Amino acid sequence: GGQIFGDDLNFTLNRQGYVGTDCSARLNRAVFFKNNLGGLTSLGVGDTALINSYVSNNGSNAESNYGGILSGQGQNLSIVYSTVLNNLSEIGARSLICTPDAGTTEIRNSVVIAFVAPSIDCATATISQSAVDEGKVDGDTNIAAMMADAMNWFEPQVSGVYKAKADTPLKDLAVWNDGDPKADFNGDARPATMGMTDYAGADRPAP
């Protein structure tokens, strides 16, 4: 039943990055990087919101059942303006797995890509204004992407952070809504006006 409100957090080089059970968390400008058994697990009653955050290079091909994010047992998950990139797992989807009993899942204004696609296995997910490797449904608001695209869209990672390059397909993909962050991971200002377009992901190029 606990509640966590965290800004500027770093979960790096652990067995698991973050594990929450029957609690709620709002994690803003967080980095989950090189955690061997997975980046973020949220289970049970509660809501987890990931905002302006990176979940990158977690998991392994040898011992992890998931790489980036695992959600289930009624937990509601929101991934907004975040970058989930280059995670690994021995079996199953590498970026996001939701168990059959997971709550609602929203992915918006984000980037979710791994080397093996599709890297999302989440029946409850609603995905919009994002770049994802699960493919693009005709008429939706997402774009399909692979790791080769991501390598062209971002600078090489530094401690789990992939800085965005300018004038890529991520530009104008996101749409800012009321309640969204007014600045990105690095503190650069976002449009902060309802309906204005923006770069998808945790970072936008510096002005």
Topology readout:
Elements: E1 3-7, E2 10-12, E3 18-21, E4 24-28, E5 31-33, E6 40-43, E7 47-51, E8 54-56, E9 69-72, E10 76-80, E11 83-85, E12 96-98, E13 105-108, E14 111-113, E15 120-121, E16 125-128, E17 131-132, E18 143-144, H1 147-153, E19 174-175, E20 197-198
Parallel strand pairs: 1-4, 2-5, 3-6, 4-7, 5-8, 6-9, 7-10, 8-11, 9-12, 10-13, 11-14, 12-15, 13-16, 14-17, 17-18
Antiparallel strand pairs: 19-20
How confident overall, as mean pLDDT?
95
Annotation field: number of helices? 1
- Taking Cα atoms only, what radius of gyration do you get, to the nearest Å? 15 Å
What share of the residues lie within helices? under 10%
Structural class: mainly beta
Record field, number of beta strands: 20
* Series of H and E elements: EEEEEEEEEEEEEEEEEEHEE
User: How would you characterize the largest beta sheet?
Assistant: 7 strands, parallel
General form: globular
Question: Please, could you describe this protein's structure?
Answer:
With 207 residues, the chain is mainly beta. 3% of the residues lie in helices and 33% in strands. The protein has 1 helix and 20 strands. The strands form 4 sheets. A 7-stranded parallel sheet has the order 2-5-8-11-14-17-18, with no helix packed on it. It has a 6-stranded parallel sheet with strand order 1-4-7-10-13-16, with no helix packed on it. Strands 3-6-9-12-15 form a 5-stranded parallel sheet, with no helix packed on it. The longest helix has 7 residues. The chain is globular. The mean pLDDT is 95.
